[in-house]
Amino acid sequence: MRCLVLSLCTLFALASAPGWAQASQPAPREGPASQPAPREGPASQPAPHEGPASQPAPVHAPAPVAAAPGPAAPAEPAADDDTFGSFVGMLQSAPVSATAGGYSDSPGPADSANVLPSGAGLFHFALALSSTPDATLLLQAAQVDAPQLRLRFGVFDVAEATGDLVYTVDTDEGGQVRARVSHLSVGGRVKLLEEGGFWPAAAVGVRFGLPLDTLELRHSGLIAQTNVQKTLAERLTLTGNALFTYDGLTERFAFGGAMAASVYVGAGMSFFGAGSGELDLDLMGNIAAHGGGAYDVGSFLRLDLTVSSEMWPNLGAWGVRTGATVFFDGF
After folding, report:
1. What pLDDT is recorded for position 283?
2. Cβ count within 10 A of residue 234
3. % of the chain beyond a pLDDT of 70
4. Domain architecture of the chain: domains with CATH
């Protein structure tokens, strides 16, 4: 029994010693099965790829996001060296719009057939000089109209109201200088036809002259007028008027008319030529030739100049008239 106890104590002491613990572990197995043998030679590492594929693939930046489509840029006009073609193109592209020049009755003796639209207005101011046949200087003018005023206002799209006033300085039969309101009238104009195709624009108007000298109704005057107008090739405008007048103070009836041709040349400039005539029941009257031009300053102002020469019966009598027209596009 004592021997058995001593044997157990000896074994316990040996088990507690570190050297014995390590020696008691089973020995590792040697050879290929103990650990995977490292591969030697070219197979020990992955063979590198040769050539361009051996480099890492380049990293591409993300594609830019396309911008939202906007308005296309205006195309550059093609150069055109054809001078004649450019001139013809200019003649076919005259601006036609609601402007002072489009509605003005000036320059020239032939009034426009265009009626102002509703709410629009037009004001014309002019200075006119006229002479006798033997006058050679402007200072020898026999009559000065300063000013000649005309006011037009669109009541409807096809009708307008008009008013005219002329202040005159001249000489009476005794050679005395006199200044007075020589003409004051009110009236209106109505559009009959709108221009289109072969048809011209047409309008009729009536003005009643107020008897300022006597203030008697029987001395009132009357002017009835028909206007026609046609635009050709967008640059050439033909205008014609036929009128009937009655002067209640002198009890004189007269018939008259005017024809005018106006050409727009560009840059706001236009030129015209015209002829006019008048004949009363006593076969007395006059025939005159007119010429001049106008310049449109923007859309709302026209400046004009007219030079006239009487052909019959007072050959050589002349007249000069300059004016300005202001257009108001609605009130």
Report:
1. 82
2. 14
3. 67
4. 90-328 (2.40.160.40)
